[in-house]
Amino acid sequence: MACTVTALEGGRLQVTFLPASGGEPIVIGPVRSQEQADLVCDVLTGPIDLVLDELSIVLQNRPRAAGPLYGAFVASRVPLSEELWSRIPLPLPEAAQALPAALACSAQQARQVVWRMSEAERQRLQLFGLCLARLQRRLRMPLPGPLPGRIMALITSSSMATIDCSNPAPRVTFQQLGQFVGKRVTLVGRIEGVDGNTLQLRTPDNGVVAVQLQSIAPQTSLLEVQGLVNSPTSLTEDSLTQLSDNFDLANYSELCKLAHSPQFRHMFLP
């Protein structure tokens, strides 16, 4: 593994790392001082356990500075074991810089990065995936290589929250709900009313679903719900995630349609 430091205009420095695997170079910068550049090189090339111990100290004392360093660590070390991923913070500021290296490795490694990305970064990724699918549809031919499938797989596994991938639940709209009676699904919508342990959830395609709550009543109006479908208009919740108001419902609805279309269904398999 090679790590080089070059000078930029204005006295700043740039660190370039060449992975031993021969992947794309990782470029970090600009950094302000030689001391910071040396720290980045240590993160990229040092012993894993020692580096993670040092990063945890940086995270406690300088949280904003820790994000890019963790991102550089992930990009230079993928694939990471489950044990190592458990030591990477969630969420992780600027995690997106590690996505190209993780995606080149496997969809599972990329999924770990996506789980740590900010909500804004994940929304941009969803939009990119939607544009990619539309491009393939217009070309009437698949794009070369496994990249499109990997991107779409991790998009559907990220949404706006961490998902239990050992028991995946397909994302559906109200119109698709009746196809999954007796099965687990993931549904997004806005709360229209609450009556005891039942809330009325309006979906992006303007349907209303009665959700029987098993968790504490949510504090926000926009939710992602996983649960067992009882009927075409009701389900029993087994987990829910509260979403911010800037969640893009229109993109979610489009992605659901693509995920269930014969032409693109295979791209959404985990």
UniProtKB/TrEMBL annotation:
It comes from the Eukaryota. One of its GO terms (cellular component) is nuclear lumen. One of its GO terms (biological process) is DNA replication. The keyword Nucleus applies. Keywords: Nucleus. It is found in: Nucleus. Transmembrane segments: none annotated. InterPro entries: NA-bd_OB-fold (IPR012340), Rfa2 (IPR013970). The keyword Nucleus applies. One of its GO terms (molecular function) is DNA binding. Belongs to the replication factor A protein 3 family. This is Replication A 14 kDa subunit B.
